[in-house]
Write a structure and sequence with these properties.
- By secondary structure, the protein is α/β, with parallel strands linked by helices.
- It has a single domain (4-156), classed as Rossmann fold (3-Layer(aba) Sandwich), CATH 3.40.50.2300.
- It is built from 5 helices and 8 strands.
- It has helices at 12-24, 69-78, 95-103, 115-130, 140-144, and strands at 4-8, 28-32, 57-61, 63-64, 67-68, 85-90, 107-110, 155-156.
- It has a 6-stranded mixed beta sheet with strand order 7-6-3-1-2-8, with helices on both faces. It has a two-stranded antiparallel ribbon with strand order 4-5.
- The longest helix has 16 residues, at 115-130.
- The relative contact order is 0.22.
């Protein structure tokens, strides 16, 4: 089964380029222009299957409307998110953001970066996952679509209403 990736970036060109590249590489991808457009943002605790998270990888921009990628990641981890790998991208890394991202165990990409650098990191991630049992499909869409407190107005990638089971 494909590795599941969530992509967050308010820059449409970067988000769509990354999403299309990841899909071509065989990953299952859902992308959003900011975290509060993703249904998992509104849950108070992780409700994923006990052995499997909503996604295997989160790739997020650092600076987005309403929150930062670091704040989003911290919120998800506090709630018990089972994501296995996280990458944070930014063209404007401050010392504190860079330090915090590394403390959280995130891979850090400085924009502009080569898509081949992202591919190299994901190839390493894929190797780590080869010995792991298959995961469930990207399943948060159906589980959360009626729980979001804000309307899902603009998303890209996999639509929120797409049945995935």
């Amino acid at each position: 089964m494909a590795i599941k990736i969530l992509v967050f970036d308010d820059d449409e060109l970067i988000r769509m380029t990354l999403t299309n590249f990841l899909k071509q590489e065989g990953y299952e991808v859902a992308s959003f222009n900011q975290p509060d457009h993703c249904p998992i943002y509104y849950s108070d605790a992780c409700t994923c299957h006990k052995d499997d998270g909503c996604a295997d990888v989160i790739i997020t921009d650092l600076n987005m409307p309403g929150t930062t990628g670091i704040n989003f990641i911290e919120k998800q981890l506090r709630q018990g998110c089972k994501v296995k790998k996280i990458a944070v991208m930014s063209g404007d890394w401050g010392d504190s953001g860079l330090v915090r991202a590394k403390e959280l165990g995130c891979m850090v990409f400085k924009k502009p970066f080569s898509i081949m650098d992202m591919k190299k990191w994901l190839d390493e991630v894929r190797k780590e996952f080869q010995d792991k049992p298959a995961t469930l499909p990207l399943n948060f869409c159906e589980r959360y679509k009626n729980k979001a407190s804000k309307p899902q107005t603009k998303t890209s990638g996999i639509p929120l209403f797409k049945p995935v089971k």
